[in-house]
Design brief:
It contains 5 helices and 2 strands, in the order αααααββ.
């Protein structure tokens, strides 16, 4: 393991090549060979899927980009409709239970209509996709805690 990496058991200290992370969970006297038998214990379910092929197409046509944008817009519309329905149901229940409390209906409707979900995709943030593809730059600003889970380093408290 690289000394510049953090220990997988204690993220606050650097790796000192103690070898604890290479020990087999089943037989502590042997080095792990990634057989996977430790995952079968204690009720862990393992499932696999067959992948026929992986398509890597970097040349996107305008049609694909338009379809992607329309899909995002449809998802945002569906989310806002669901929120509107939930808010209206909650408001109806509150109004029927408490007849003495009356609120301005126009203000409620305008607040509901103005709400939009805050969604940011990796492709939407300028430079993030390039950062994820460049391993050296990514190691400077982030730590991969688990495969697929990347945590940004907090440089605010360092001198």
């Amino acid at each position: 393991m690289d000394k510049s990496k953090n220990c997988i058991f204690d993220y606050n200290k650097l790796c000192n090549n103690c070898g604890e992370c290479d020990i087999c969970d089943i037989d502590h006297n042997k080095k792990c060979d990634n057989c996977g038998r430790c995952l079968e214990e204690e009720g862990y379910d393992m499932k696999s899927i067959k992948i026929d092929k992986v398509v890597l197409n970097k040349d996107k046509t305008e049609e694909e980009l338009i379809l992607k944008d329309s899909e995002v817009n449809e998802k945002e519309d569906l989310m806002s409709e669901k929120c509107n329905d939930q808010c209206k149901c909650q408001n109806d229940e509150a109004d029927s239970g408490t007849e003495n409390i009356k609120k301005d209906e126009n203000q409620k409707d305008s607040n509901i209509d103005n709400w939009k979900p805050d969604i940011e995709y990796i492709d939407d943030i300028e430079g993030l996709n390039d950062l994820l593809n460049d391993v050296k730059k990514l190691d400077e600003v982030a730590v991969e805690e688990f495969p697929g889970l990347i945590r940004l380093k907090n440089n605010r408290y360092k001198n």
